[in-house]
Amino acid sequence: MNIPILVVSCDLYKDVWPAFFQSFFKYWSDCPFPIYLVSNNSSYSDSRVLPLLVGDDVDYSSNLIKAVQSIQEEWLIFWIDDRPPATSVDTAQLVRLIELAQEKDAGYLKLIPCHPFALVSEKEEIGEIPKNSRYLVSMTVALWKKSTLLKVLEAGESAWDIEKKGGVKRARNLNDKFYALPIKSLNPYPIIDIHMIAKGKLRWQGIKFLRQQGLLHHLYNRSRVTSQQYVYDILFNLVLSVNSHFRFKLLQLVNKFTKA
Length: 260
Fold this sequence. Notes:
The chain is of the alpha/beta class. 37% of the residues lie in helices and 15% in strands. It has an eight-stranded mixed beta sheet with strand order 3-2-1-4-7-5-8-6, with helices on both faces. The protein has a two-stranded antiparallel ribbon with strand order 9-10.
């Protein structure tokens, strides 16, 4: 299985690279996939990380399109640079989910457990995301079919545009299938990540993780979110979580009465 991992970044985030990759290799020492760092003109000094340089910055989507078009494989794992694994990655489980997504001819499979979840039984390992879901497309950690990703991307857009504007609108109009992990699972999730940075600033969860890992000094000069932003972040994620659980419980009730 030759699926490249594209750690998507830019030169302005080179201060994040040491913390990201030290965490990555600590928690995924047996990673079987080639790892590319997408950046502008700078590379990371580690033989396990291959540079994929796109040149001077244009915009997020243009840079990413150039990077994706340069690889030959049909599938890739997109991995944003500010979300390293926070616990050991279950390689066998991850490979099983990738194979399952390929069997189902998925265009996209989100590989981390966060909104929107697949509203399927806990016995199912993956399920389709309803096309009207918020964050149908998430630029976090996901398996993509290369052709699907290129259909979603459009030059001139930011990551925010992809998730909330043009990108998600294009995704909803595709026949390609978008999958995610179930909200409850009998199997462990293969990747548990930590979201370190939001809008260029260190999140409090990220600071705690980096301090525990002895990596905070790498990002010492990066600004931090305010307490107001921290509270907003907690409330926003709480709303998303409640929404996901409510929809799942509602679906369970519908299925129960349908079968009765």
